[in-house]
Amino acid sequence: MDIPFDVSFHFDHNLRDVPNAPAQMQQAVEWLQSQLKDNTNNTRKQIELLGLIGVYARMLHDFPTAQQALISAIELSESIGSDRYKTINLIRLAHLY
Prior knowledge:
Helices cover 64% and strands 6% of the residues. It has four helices and two strands. Strands 1-2 form a two-stranded antiparallel ribbon. A hairpin with a 5-residue loop joins strand 1 and strand 2. The chain is globular and about 40 Å long. The mean pLDDT is 95. This is Tetratricopeptide repeat protein.
């Protein structure tokens, strides 16, 4: 997916991922959230968008947004019977704790 913002990151001395451009990563989260409102997205696309929102929101320390997005991604994954997407987003959710 081509995101029109800088979502690059690096690892700090504690091996935590840190955005290189936090303001742009925040814009990316908002942009991804707006993409969710597009009714032409199929369920798999919605899961992918929610997963990215969760990852970037976690890096920005917006834990409530990250948790909500990842739980939604997991629920959608279960609704379509995708163990792959469910596992990916469960691992992402585990990084919140």
